[in-house]
Write a sequence for this structure.
């Protein structure tokens, strides 16, 4: 849980919506998911495996897979570590103890996780978890993107790389068609040493516990697959730490859907909040533009006004000046006329001051 | 690419054409082999390494380097930085071509290419991060097509349709940013499901954030890089305004990228602190990780800053190239190099020459299409009828 | 929701599918609401 929760928190932090961090939006806030209680499983007691490859042969026949290069009774293939492939849904690998004396075998195939990474990763629902416990593959939907192979922590799904146009993802089916008919999976039926037991998952876990309890010196006190990656429908017992028989012990118990739930939960938050954020930024920049524009307009208007006022002031000053000059001219003329009149009056006493000068100056105005 | 081009009807073979012709021929051969012999014939992919160069480079780098489209259009239309206007069309064109080629490359990589629409139209696996990527890439390719269309419509002279599309600019830009945020980050989120396969130095809950942030500065660097190429090879197609403004755009983006890269460095360190993965720094993986961060993030960020302070265009362009290389290195690390780090050397992946040829073919296709568009359409100049 | 979900995956498939549809609707709704919200804005808000 901690990882998905942290992912989610980190995402929300980035999205700036920390208020939502209180709920596990990625998964479910209240529900627990028990899985399919009646699902089938296989318990592989690796201490009983003798590396005879009978399971491989049975699997090959039941699933009508192509004949391998070397026959199944040729045990020289065990010299190299093998993985599942498009032609082999299951393989047995051999491991030596540190001393090089003791030999251990372990069978590998799809573990049919309770919360499969491949199912969570498939973007066309070509992979589905079935109530029987099997992880089913539907080739009629598969695009061939191979994200399931990236996602699988056990490195199980294989691909038909040599098919040009109709490649399929190939992996163990838990022999679902057979178990529905009431038969055993091919490998279980083919196993001569009872290293494989088939049954309900709950019962097999109980059985495995009992074996560990009865033979504490013989078994590691761990059922591989009970918790790994959220649990699997294939369970393992071993005499040595599982990492010594090629199984990863660092996978943790967090299921695949939990790993991506945080990022997926952020998607609707981004889609829901980004439009507002972006439209807001747009509105702000537009308003700034508008303000700048209107400020510019105001500034222009003010300049025009000021210019106008200045012109008017100048005009007024000019007018005033002119008026003053004219007044001066008038008073000068009046004075002149008066003076002349006085002179005339002094010169001759006819006393006829008709003021012609004054008149003419008035007409000028 | 010595500037030789079509000269009035008579076509002359020049080195550029010969090289492009050879690449196309090689690409054609690989195409035939891929669709007759399957991925096994042309690639080094195997059951442990299902994603190779075509995803690591063509998809992850292609999408990230096409981020210039949403970054530039957002800067211009949403943030109102008008001086980026002349950079919008080249960036949108790059993005459109980039995404179109990503989708083309996916046709080679997936098993049944005709089912690529399945996740959207037939069977929706909504729990998959890849579903989110697919949906967003599909929608964003549509958005980019619409955003790019005015240039083509001006070229064709369809004024009415153009006027209609131009009205949608803001909506398309906002939608483009949302979609880009989602799928750029989701490409990083693809790897969240595989903590057991990706080296702890690169695996982080913050992967989506890292992918998103790095796409922004990579997109900016790509715009700077491309504008330098345009100046060199398509100068005659640029009008005065584009030439005048392109340097401002370059320095603006250089400044933004520089600051963002410093912040990216910071959040990368926070990632180490959150997961307490410091001890891995002492290993050889740590050296590689630090090379990526110091050599291809911190260094270009610093050089960007120096270039902006000194207004040194040459240094700016150099930093842009370094930063683009840094992004490619980061995506390679996450998808190829630090992925499956736990496997023994013999089981690791290295691309086949045919995978490399096809990637070069795809890039060449992009360059050729870009050149085709820039020569004919009003990308690097304003169409006189619409300015 | 009365549907019984046996696995977290089944639950997420159900909820994410609804969420994607919801988000698609929301985005269209946001757009329409934005037009309603700004329908009477003058060309120049300062005028």
């Amino acid at each position: 849980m901690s990882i998905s929760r942290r992912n989610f928190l980190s995402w929300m932090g980035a999205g700036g919506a920390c208020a939502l961090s209180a709920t596990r939006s990625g998964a479910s806030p209240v529900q627990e998911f028990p899985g399919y209680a009646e699902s089938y499983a296989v318990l592989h007691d690796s201490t009983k495996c003798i590396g005879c490859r009978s399971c491989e042969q049975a699997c090959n026949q039941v699933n009508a897979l192509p004949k391998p290069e070397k026959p199944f009774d040729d045990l020289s293939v065990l010299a190299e570590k093998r993985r599942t492939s498009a032609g082999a849904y299951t393989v047995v690998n051999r491991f030596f103890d540190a001393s090089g004396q003791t030999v251990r075998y372990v069978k590998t195939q799809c573990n049919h996780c309770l919360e499969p990474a491949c199912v969570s990763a498939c973007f066309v629902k070509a992979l589905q978890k079935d109530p029987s416990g099997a992880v089913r593959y539907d080739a009629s939907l598969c695009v061939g993107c191979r994200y399931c192979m990236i996602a699988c922590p056990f490195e199980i799904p294989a691909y038909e790389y040599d098919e040009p146009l109709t490649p399929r993802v190939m992996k163990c089916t838990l022999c679902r068609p057979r178990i529905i008919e009431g038969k055993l999976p091919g490998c279980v039926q083919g196993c001569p040493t009872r290293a494989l037991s088939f049954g309900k998952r709950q019962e097999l876990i109980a059985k495995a516990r009992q074996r560990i309890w009865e033979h504490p010196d013989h078994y590691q006190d761990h059922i591989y697959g009970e918790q790994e990656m959220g649990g699997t429908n294939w369970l393992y017992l071993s005499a040595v730490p599982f990492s010594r028989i090629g199984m990863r012990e660092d996978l943790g118990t967090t299921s695949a859907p939990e790993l991506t739930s945080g990022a997926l939960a952020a998607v609707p938050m981004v889609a829901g909040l980004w439009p507002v954020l972006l439209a807001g930024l747009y509105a702000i920049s537009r308003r700034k533009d508008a303000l700048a524009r209107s400020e510019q307009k105001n500034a222009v208007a003010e300049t025009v006004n000021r210019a106008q006022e200045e012109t008017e002031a100048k005009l007024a000053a000019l007018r005033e000046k002119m008026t003053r000059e004219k007044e001066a001219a008038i008073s000068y003329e009046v004075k002149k006329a008066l003076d002349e009149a006085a002179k005339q009056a002094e010169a001759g006493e006819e006393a006829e001051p008709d003021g012609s000068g004054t008149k003419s100056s008035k007409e000028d105005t | 690419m010595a500037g030789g081009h079509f000269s009035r009807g008579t076509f002359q073979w020049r080195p550029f054409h010969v090289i492009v012709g050879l690449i196309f021929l090689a690409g054609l051969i690989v195409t035939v082999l891929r669709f007759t012999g399957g991925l096994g014939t042309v690639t080094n992919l195997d059951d442990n390494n299902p994603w190779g160069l075509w995803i690591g480079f063509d998809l992850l780098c292609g999408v990230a380097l096409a981020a210039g489209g949403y970054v530039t259009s957002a800067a211009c239309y949403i943030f109102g930085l008008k001086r980026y206007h002349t950079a919008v069309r080249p960036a949108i064109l790059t993005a459109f071509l980039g995404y179109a080629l990503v989708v083309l490359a996916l046709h080679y990589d997936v098993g049944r290419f005709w089912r690529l629409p399945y996740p959207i139209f037939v069977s929706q696996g909504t729990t998959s991060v890849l579903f989110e990527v697919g949906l967003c890439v599909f929608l964003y390719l549509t958005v980019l097509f619409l955003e790019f269309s005015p240039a083509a419509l001006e070229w064709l002279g369809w004024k009415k349709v153009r006027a209609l599309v131009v009205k949608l600019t803001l909506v398309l830009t906002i939608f483009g940013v949302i979609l880009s945020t989602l799928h750029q980050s989701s490409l990083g989120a693809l790897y969240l499901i595989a903590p057991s396969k990706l080296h702890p130095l690169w695996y982080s809950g913050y992967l989506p954030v890292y992918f998103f942030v790095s796409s922004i500065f990579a997109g900016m660097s790509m715009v700077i890089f491309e504008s330098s190429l345009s100046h060199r090879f398509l100068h005659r197609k640029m009008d005065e305004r584009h030439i005048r403004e392109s340097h401002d755009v370059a320095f603006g983006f250089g400044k933004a990228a520089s600051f963002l890269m410093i912040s990216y460095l910071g959040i990368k360190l926070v990632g180490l602190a959150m997961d307490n993965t410091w001890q891995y720094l002492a290993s050889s993986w740590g050296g590689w990780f630090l090379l990526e961060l110091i050599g291809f993030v911190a260094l270009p960020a610093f050089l960007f800053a120096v270039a902006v302070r000194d207004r040194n265009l040459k240094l700016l362009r150099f930093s842009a190239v370094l930063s683009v290389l840094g992004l490619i290195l980061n995506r390679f690390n996450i998808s190829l190099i630090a992925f499956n780090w736990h496997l023994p050397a013999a089981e690791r992946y290295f691309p086949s020459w045919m995978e490399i040829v096809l990637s070069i073919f795809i890039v060449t296709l992009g360059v050729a299409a870009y050149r085709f568009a820039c020569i004919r359409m009003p990308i690097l100049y304003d169409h006189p009828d619409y300015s | 929701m009365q549907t019984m979900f046996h696995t977290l995956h089944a639950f997420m498939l159900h909820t994410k599918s609804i969420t994607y549809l919801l988000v698609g609707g929301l985005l269209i709704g946001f757009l329409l609401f934005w037009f309603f919200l700004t329908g009477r804005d003058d060309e120049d808000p300062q005028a």
The two ends of chain A are 104 Å apart (CA to CA).
